[in-house]
Amino acid sequence: MSFRSPSVPVVEQLDLFEHSHDTMLRNDAIDALLGRDACVASTARQKLSGLFPQHPDLNSLATLIGALRADDVSPFADPAAAARAREHLADEIAPAAVALLGSSAAGNWLAPLWRGLAERASALPFNAAHPEDHASPLWLRAGDARLAAEAAARVESWRRIPVTLAWMVRARHRVEGLDGLWPLLAELVWLAAPRFELTTRELADPLLDRLLRRFDERFDPGPGGDTNALVWFPAWLLTEQPALLPRLREARTGQDGEPERCFRLLAELLGLERQGRHRDLIDGRKRLRDQQPALYATYMATR
């Protein structure tokens, strides 16, 4: 009398064994990759390929093993060479790492590769046509904010270039948080509001996000003027958070547009209030009312 169940054929048991062996060989390769051992990973991949030549992870494994074996540390000769290496890492190696290791582990695994590119790009000058191949954004991708800030600071007039100013904002935010960034944020939004918007999304700072949402909900600059309302954010911020005045005052003169001039006027008004200079305060409020009625109304609502 047989006790074998007819509902569990032998072939399914064999499939289960093959699947387990498949998974074991794959995991051996991944463990070696996580340990950054290209030789052991290659051996495990060869075994997997020999037994399971159609396995879907073979190509990704080969890509990551090749990335570990690449040992070129020579400085990039030109921006084109840096661009090729960056595109290979971003478009081929990184997706393979995410597919095999998962997003979190992939980020840690990729960091040394980004560091290698940043080191090789360190001598390249800033190229406005291809800014992504400069060392600063590569250091950011490697997770080294200090070196990213140093690389950005070496670009001549970095505070006058939206992309380099944004790199500095991102780097310093990782090191010191939001407190010291207010002047740079004001300069960035006056200089290039779209870049400011992109950068603040990347920062994902809870306090800054709350203030930006509140600004969007509560302030309408009215018709005319700049089409991007964000340029009024620093001036509005003085009405919402007057304690930030000492920090925001450190913002350097940008394009001297109307939003910036109103910001300077509002900062002057806050100073006059503290000094008790009522006659000058009245004159200043009239000027603000004439220049930007919506900002004047927001300011007076708290008086």
Note down, in words, how this protein is organized:
By secondary structure, the protein is mainly α. The protein has a domain at 85-124 and 131-143. Helices cover 70% and strands 0% of the residues. The protein has helices at residues 10-34, 38-51, 58-69, 79-101, 103-121, 135-142, 145-153, 162-176, 182-191, 193-203, 206-218, 233-240, 245-248, 258-275, 278-291, 293-300. The radius of gyration is 28 Å and the shape is elongated.
> Tell me, what's the shape?
elongated
Mind summarizing the main beta sheet? none
Beta-sheet strand percentage? Answer: under 5%
Spatial extent as radius of gyration: 28 Å
Number of helical segments with 4 or more residues: 16
How many strand units? 0
| Distance linking N and C termini | 95 Å
List keywords for this structure.
elongated, about 300 residues, about 0% strand, 16 helices
Quick summary:
With 303 residues, the chain is an all-alpha fold. The protein has 16 helices and no strands.
Topology:
Elements: H1 10-34, H2 38-51, H3 58-69, H4 79-101, H5 103-121, H6 135-142, H7 145-153, H8 162-176, H9 182-191, H10 193-203, H11 206-218, H12 233-240, H13 245-248, H14 258-275, H15 278-291, H16 293-300
